[in-house]
Amino acid sequence: MATELDRKEVVVVGMGWAGSIVAAELAKAGKNVIGLERGAERKTEDFLLAHDEYKYVIGQELMQDLSKESMTFRSNPDEEALPMRQFGAYLIGTDVGGGGVHWNGDTWRYLPYDFEIKSQTDEKYGEDKISDDYLIQDWGITYDEMEPYYEKYELTSGVSGEQNPLAPERNIPFPTPPMLMTPLLQRFTDACENVGLHPFRLPSSNLSEEYTNPDGQTIAACQYCGFCERFGCEWGAKASPITTTIPAAKEHDNFELRTFANVVEITKEDDEVTGVTFVDTRSHEEFFQPADVVVVTSHTTNNTKLLLHSDLGTPYDPETGEGTVGKNYTHHITPEVYGFFDWEYNASMGAGSLGVSVDDYNGDHFDHSDLDFIHGGSITMKQLGKRPIAENAVPEGVKNWGAEFKTESLKAYNTSVAATSQCITLPHRNNYLSLDPEYTDDYGRPLLRVTYDFTDHDRAAHEFMTDRIQEIIEEMGAVSLNRGTLDEHFDIYKPLNDHILGGTIVGADPETSVLNNYCQMWDEDNVFVIGGSSLPHNGGYNPTCTVGAFAYRAAEGIEMYLDDNGPLIDAE
What we know:
The chain is an alpha/beta fold. 23% of the residues lie in helices and 18% in strands.
């Protein structure tokens, strides 16, 4: 029997970016909020002298424990799904702050085209441009409507950047100037300009200077130490929930943070959601947290899993096309070309978002009339700070072991670098999330089952983008290069297919979406779901800024719901 706790107005499940934004905003508005996080609390001081690549990158110190909660994977609906045993394409954070602690810091706004991809594609190229197997749809909201929420997130994070010449003109400047221009990035910039492209320094939440945000939280200036992705920042110089929104929420007595609380079910009584059930991961005690509103803000996979376990919404059926929970599951594909040069740069220094990008082949910035794909991706070169274990590139033809490998990898460390693309993947009818009929987690619940593989659209876009990257690398003067390829099938253990979206998507129609554009469930007025799971497709950028923007919009919607006690949007 679960122990029942005191009722709250709002319970938030997961205290990463989305959850902490909602908690802070509602606490400021005077609402009674509890945030539940299955892991421990992390603070900046926990990462002092934490430059341990083996512990954090290889050992996945900040990631979900797959021995207790994994997922099963298969390439298509006819295969048997088997449990995932180690991380690769999936980087599911745990502890307070979630993935917002170990991210690189790329902070992009999606393009106007992304929000209206179906209608704009049909208008320009015709309804038969791509097969009906690709489940693209408009999001039920436009870029202009989202812009104020993008601005809120950027001001909270203190984003460092400069105007993308191919994106809409910003209403407000970036809160802080762009990061430094290095000799390596200047070479990339010059090469891009030489081939007629429009380079700019990408928007970064590794800050170029110290910044105090509107909530009074101060983020330090980046030291360019090179330990961002998969690491917490020891300087407090990377915008994250533990440096911004969680401290802001904690300033209010009406906010409570409860750690080691793993939510296993959203509870319904008499056909009404009444709260959540969670297990204390230390004592294994079970608790029921009653609440007027339940806000689900975990990882894409865990958000979808929780709705499916709780029988909220209708599971997606790929054979009939009916149902919405689990639909539109996507990854990024990452075209890459590694260049080897006869000049050196300081490879050990850098930052997660220290880079230059071009957007000429993203969205609909170029004509797709004679191409067998739509959209595209941004192309970026970063100076991340190379890691000796994970980044050991050598030219093609060199064995990956022995004396020759050691010699060539040492030579290549300061003379090689990759340019990559965050490249679109479209949702496909056979790529989806469901519950596994055989395997269970540590709590006896079915594991989430992932059904996913590359599509013909992925292959066409990947080949085109790789060609464009190669043109830039060759213009930089590469003496040799390694050109990335797309495998025959998706490999869950390869790390270049990340940014996992979909499963509980927003939209204008409950027949094709789980949520309205306030991230409120069509089927359950008092349940809101925010995160990567809310986005109907992957754009040509990292999705974090868009998730943050939706979190600010959802917080606004939850406050309206609590005050008015009704649905926010009628279905079209």
